[in-house]
Amino acid sequence: MQSNQSAQYNINTPIQDGEQQEDAVIIQKFISMALGLWPWLLLSAIVCLAMAFLYYKSSTPMYKANASVLVQDDKKGSDMGANVDILQGLGLLLGKSNVDNELEIFKSRTLMEQVVKELQLNVKYFISGKVKKKEIFFYRPITLKLLEESYTSPKAATFEFKLDPEKNTFSIEDNDEIIKGKIGDTLQLKAGKVAVLPEKSLATWVKDESLTINVNTLDMTTRTYMGALDASIPNKLVSVIDLAFNETSPEKSELILNTLIKAYLKASVDDKSRMADSTVKFIDERLVLVFKELSDIEGSIEKFKTANKLTDVSEQTKILLENSSEYLKLQNEQEVELSIVNELEKFLKDNITNARAVPASLVMQDPNFIQLVQQYNKLQLERERMLMTQTAAHPAVLTLDKQLNNLRLELLSSIGSIKRGIETGMRELKKKTSRFETMVREVPSKERTFLDYSRQQAIKQELYLFLLKKREETAISKSSTIATARIIDEAKSSGVPFAPKKTAILLVGLVLGIAIPFGVVYVKSFFNNRVSSLSDISNLTRVPVLAEIGHNENEDNILAVTLNDRTVISEQFRSLRTNINFLLAGSDGCKTILITSSMSGEGKSFLSVNLASALALAGKKVALLEFDLRRPKISEKLNLMRNGFTNYIVSGRDDWKHFMQKPDIAQANFDVLSSGPIPPNPAELLMLPRTITFFNELKSSYDFIIIDTAPVGLVTDAQILSAYADITLFVVRHQYTHKNQIKLVEQLHSKRALPGINIIVNDIKLKKGGYGYGYGYGYGYGYGYGYGYGYGYDEKEKG
């Protein structure tokens, strides 16, 4: 119910768009909505909280295991000790690695797949619990081992095992076939070829208790566990990698994480071992060739001495050999080094695809060359690790290939410089040894030949000993190979699940429980295209709302305002009467009020009758004109005769006063003019000169004239009659009038098509704590005209 002051406020106060007023309205609506929805809010909150609690109880607890690994990084500090420096000094094992690369290796699919295969994580074992199935990993009675030939791509499947520990037998259903066997047998199931192996817990297993075994694909399991792993570098200033793994069991999470770290360390050692193996293979190949050449030379010496019966050389030759030994030694070293350089050059030219590491330890005499080789091997190792997670066509791999090719060209260029240096040294040595060669020519032919054999033997022997030494060094370094990382903290779980969080789940349930009713109301309101609150009107038009009329509980009686009646609705009409008097203050003579709407069924006839009654109760002489000529209802509701306006217009003789009637239930100063028979041309009748005469005479006899006309949104009657009106009351029925029909009011106001237009909100049914006004349904009439002038509606209008 709206008081007089409220109605006056709607008249005199323009529509305000200030932020404070909008905020106040929003808050008021929200509070009103909450009060009206509290039973639903309570029920929704209880239901959602119950569902949240059930979700919490049925969710599997998740545990987190944490570990830390220190990675040796050439860009950061490391405490790996002097052993690494010793191995790197041999030029064989490049221990330094980039911590970011190692982080990617921990996250790699290859590493996780090794863990899945080793622990057979794609096979899970469950027993039935009170609410859900519980996984048993460490205490399973049997192990369903996927055999290697079927392990690479097992098919996803679920099996129900029935075990008999006493008889050591089992039964299983597979492809609608019951398979029985003894524990320890090998079976061919749809998941592949498997072996059923006993575990310690089998002895305590209850007979015929169901054991559910899920076998997932290797690919899916690997991707699932990769998602459960979190690897990060917490501090960029140090080379420490923090690892965390989430699983349904604290012991299982620790086991998986520790296995992952061990697989990483093993892969790191294997990388270094491959580099050492490359060097050993190269040396072994050279040893075979050098040993054969040395054996051939020694055999030739033995044959020469036997054939020539040469047991010893002369004293002069001995002295000559002793004097030239130093130069021979230098020459041998130069020849050995040149031979190795040639082999390395051949190796690099053949290694176009960058598939193998370079054995740098064979050229220890040139530090610049060794540095280039170390850079080359470092990039080679980085490329191998990157290929674990990327393809050869990946841009990062292609960048490394380009760097490796550039380094390979630099190595070949460096080898060319080394060869030229060796050859220059050898030429110098030949000059210095030329005088000894002259002296050798003076030695008898047999001794000279023997001296040549001896020189060749010395060269090959020196080369053979050098290769043996390097092979031994490589073997020692390989046996001492250590990983580029070490464990700081082994995997450890707190034993307390981090998920699900009970408080958070219940809080979400409570929030949803509160939000759902509001959401339903909002969605319902969003899709509701009917007027439900004053804001729906104020957002679409500047026309003020003059009054708000409630729902008429007595639907059988159209007259709600009578003498000594103090109901809510009668007070609302009295408030409307006051507002009209304020609007028409200063106007002399008869006041004419035009009442219309946008369509039928909005309660304009109900409003017309009761407004006329309210004015009559105030002592005013009132004439109510039933000018809805197409579908009149007032005369029927007030039990009046149908003869009226059309009879007066058509006859051309009768006085209009002859057709005025007084309702039995109304005051003596309340007259009603019925519409009369329904004409085929209502608009034309209203435009006749006799109508002008009628209104001029009528205004001289009454204080107020109330014109109940046809809906302005359907026909033009109201606009024709507006020439006789002082103000227009446009009726909007709550939850009945379409919102887009409010735009019609704004158009009429903008074009000044109707005089002094104001809106009356009709049929407001106040609901306790309801949304907005809590409007309900009320009254209505219907239209169903003929003669080609019908509205096309057939709604009943209440009130």
UniProtKB/TrEMBL annotation:
TM spans (from-to): 37-56, 504-523
Record localization: Cell membrane
Enzyme Commission (EC) number: 2.7.10.2
An example Gene Ontology CC term for this record: plasma membrane
Keyword set includes DNA-binding: no
Membrane topology of the entry: Multi-pass membrane protein
Keyword annotations: ATP-binding, Cell membrane, Kinase, Membrane, Nucleotide-binding, Transferase, Transmembrane, Transmembrane helix
Domain Tyrosine-protein kinase G-rich: 447-525
Domain of life: Bacteria
Top class in the EC scheme: transferase
PANTHER family the UniProt entry points to: FERRIC ENTEROBACTIN TRANSPORT PROTEIN FEPE, TYROSINE-PROTEIN KINASE
The protein's name: Polysaccharide biosynthesis tyrosine autokinase
Lineage of source species: Bacteria, Pseudomonadati, Bacteroidota, Chitinophagia, Chitinophagales
